[in-house]
Design a protein that fits this description.
Length: 422
């Protein structure tokens, strides 16, 4: 039995796109793959039970709705989409079954709105595969050991897909003894794989981002951490840990360009920089605390509440931290709450910032030269760089939010469009 886990994002399952998504599923079946299909909620606001509409409904009920009940409500979008797609394929003559995340065996910790998967009990899923059924799984959700529904954070359907594929990869045989082989995970989007920059920032430009044919696991993890729409960061880390191959594909066509992510890929270009990632607007706050233990304590608090944050260098005493606002989490309110409870003095900076990063394995060995080129490019175009953060294969530049898009364009032109091999 050769199984392929296919994940379809919100745009793929909107009403006008469901037939195209069905085609991708049937094509897998045509080449004797057993599909396990992970489904997101319909993407755009205004679609039935889209995530933004469910969130608005929850806060119409109460702006202080309990996180447990919020997750229960927010999980409905994926359940509805999953049932609809399972029914569509059944109407085409296939045996199908629709499962919630909990029914598929995903067990999480009880951190509502941002849960982590702690166990997978795939007995129901494996029985369905043994019976020859196409298995449709609602993404973005799991259950606690007390059977409460949880959600997995923004992009959580990627996490669902990778977790299920890892479990299948670690299951040598099905309950009836059939050997299981797992194909690369297919993550379906509305673009031709992972791009060299966010295409949404180039809609009115003469240039456009390029497809990245191959990515290493390390690049995938770094790019997802820095804001690139590769796959959700928790999913990227899990795929890397378990050496799980991933392909990012366009759901609108079967052939054409896509991105392969695995440990065996060779670099598909000669550029030093693989891509430009971006994130914003970020909120920056200053902690006025001279205690040398402040940094460690602050990191523990932010990690506990599962924030995506960056500690920024500062010339004076205290600390500056940039935090990514998230959909459906009042990040500013949460930070205010945890700091005031502990009487840690802080204040938010009124200005918003963007984080623009260049990433690539090819940068290793010439990091200082590339850093200088990037800073020269930004400053020559009047872009103010507040701070530079260096990673193992990345440089990130904190810029005013109003210059965020221009910074992406300038760095993309310098390191992608004008680079050898592009």
């Amino acid at each position: 039995m050769k199984v392929v886990v296919q994940k379809f994002g919100g745009g793929c399952v909107e009403e006008e796109n469901q037939e195209l998504t069905a085609e991708r599923i049937m094509e897998a079946k045509d080449v004797d793959l057993m599909p396990v299909i992970v489904i997101s909620a319909m993407g755009r606001q205004g679609n039935p039970y889209s995530t933004p509409d469910l969130y608005a409904l929850a806060h119409k009920i109460s702006p202080n709705i309990e996180p447990r009940e919020l997750d229960l409500l927010m999980s409905c979008g994926e359940i509805l989409s999953t049932a609809r797609m399972a029914h569509l394929l059944r109407s085409k003559g296939y045996e199908t079954i629709a499962l919630t995340g909990g029914q598929a065996g995903l067990v999480t910790d009880p951190y509502y709105n941002h849960a982590r998967i702690i166990d997978i009990q795939p007995a129901h899923l494996l029985r369905a595969l043994d019976e020859g059924e196409m298995v449709f799984v609602a993404g973005f959700q799991g259950v606690t050991t007390e059977h409460a529904i949880t959600t997995l954070g923004e992009g959580g359907s990627d996490y669902t897909a990778v977790a299920l594929a890892v479990t299948l990869q670690q299951t040598p045989r099905s309950p009836i003894g059939e050997e299981i082989e797992v194909a690369p995970v297919h993550i379906y989007k509305q673009v031709d794989g992972v791009m060299t920059a966010n295409p949404a920032l180039f809609e009115d430009c003469s240039s456009e981002p390029l497809n990245i044919a191959t990515l290493s696991y390390e690049e995938m993890v770094v790019m997802s951490r820095l804001g690139a729409d590769v796959i959700q960061h928790k999913a990227a880390v899990m795929a890397h840990k378990h050496h799980l191959p991933v392909q990012v594909r366009n759901f609108t066509h079967a052939g054409g360009a896509f991105t392969e992510i695995s440990r065996t890929v060779a670099r598909s270009h000669r550029r030093e920089v693989t891509g430009v990632a971006d994130m914003g607007p970020l909120r920056v706050f200053v902690v006025h605390d001279d205690d040398p233990r402040c940094g460690k304590r602050l990191g523990e608090l932010l990690d506990r509440d599962r924030f995506n944050f960056y500690t920024l260098p500062t010339e004076g005493e205290g600390m500056r931290v940039a935090v990514k606002p998230e959909k459906y989490r009042d990040v500013r309110g949460m930070i205010s709450h945890i700091f005031r409870d502990r009487e840690i003095p802080f204040e938010f900076v009124s200005e918003e910032f963007g984080l623009v990063s260049i990433v690539g394995e090819g940068m290793v060995g010439s990091m200082e030269d590339i850093r200088g080129q990037a800073l020269e490019t930004l400053k020559a175009n009047g872009i103010e760089v507040d701070v530079v953060l260096e990673g193992p294969m990345s440089f990130s530049f904190l810029v005013p939010e109003g210059q965020h898009q221009d910074a992406v364009h300038r760095l993309h032109r310098r390191f992608i469009e004008e680079a050898p091999g592009s």
